[in-house]
Amino acid sequence: MGSLGSKNYTVFGAIKKPGVILCLLLYFSSIASVQARSVEKQAVLTALSINLARFTTWPERKNPALNLCVIGDNVVQESFADMNSITINNKTLRILNRSRLRYLSQCQLLYVSALKPTVLRQVLVELKYYPILTIGEDMAFLKAGGMIGLEKLNGKMQLNINLSVIKQSELVVSSRILKLANIFEFPNAIN
User: Fold this and answer.
1) Number of neighbouring beta carbons within 10 Å of residue 15
2) DSSP-assigned letter for residue 144
3) pLDDT digit of tens for each residue in the chain (191 aa)?
4) What is the model's pLDDT at position 47?
5) What is the CATH number of the domain that holds 99?
6) Is 11 domain-assigned?
7) Rounded to the nearest 5 degrees, what angle is found at the Cα of 52, between the Cα atoms of 61 and 74?
8) How far apart are CA 172 and CA 175, in angstroms?
9) Which of 3, 49, 98, 190 has its CA 20 to 30 A from that of 166?
10) Dihedrals phi, psi of 24, to nearest 5 degrees
11) 161 within some domain
12) CB 164 within 8 A of CB 152
């Protein structure tokens, strides 16, 4: 092992040059910066999803809870965790992480992040006739049969709605939300 005064020193049994250490530090600091932006973006998407729930009406049911199911990585799931047990329209919000894609019919809202297109399409086909507000992160989500796509374009968050799919459900989305959104009609998205 070299001394601290030498140009080379040993870390975990491998010889490292100071330049390599600097490159690694820069690399890991850039990853931390990207992760921080990812967490920040996800916090915005989470808040928007919660507000969409406030302006959506579901068919009458006896359950006092509103189940928001989340499909996504740890950042996505953690961003929703703080919202558990808040009250929305006199109903208690329950956050349910659904990494295994089971029991989705128990959801009133479904937030989907990072599913393969074939799996996403299958999930949306299975939920077609349930009153579940589906929320995703891009236009491909709408084209696959999702209801609401939240997308960041040119530094601004954009709200895109597939109105034909919402009309097929028993959900009512407030006209206040519809006025803020870009409306799309992908009637054949789910067959």
Assistant:
1) 11
2) T
3) 444 444 443 444 444 445 444 433 334 333 333 344 477 888 888 999 999 999 999 998 777 899 999 998 888 888 999 999 999 999 999 999 987 888 899 999 999 998 899 999 999 998 988 999 999 999 999 999 999 999 988 988 899 999 999 999 989 999 999 999 999 998 655 55
4) 93
5) 3.40.50.2300
6) no
7) 100
8) 9
9) 98
10) -65, -40
11) yes
12) no
54: in domain: yes
| Rounded Cα–Cα distance for residues 148 and 152 (Å) | 13
Q: What is the pTM of this model?
A: 0.78
On whether residue 10 sits in a domain, the answer given is no
The answer to whether 131 touches 173, Cβ cutoff 8 Å, is no
* β-pair type (109-112, 172-173): unpaired
Total residue length of the chain: 191
- Cα–Cα separations (whole angstroms), residue 43 to 83, 154, 158, 176, 187: 11, 18, 15, 22, 31
- H and E: helices and strands count for the chain: 6, 12
Q: Is the dihedral of CA 89, 91, 95, 96 positive or negative?
A: negative
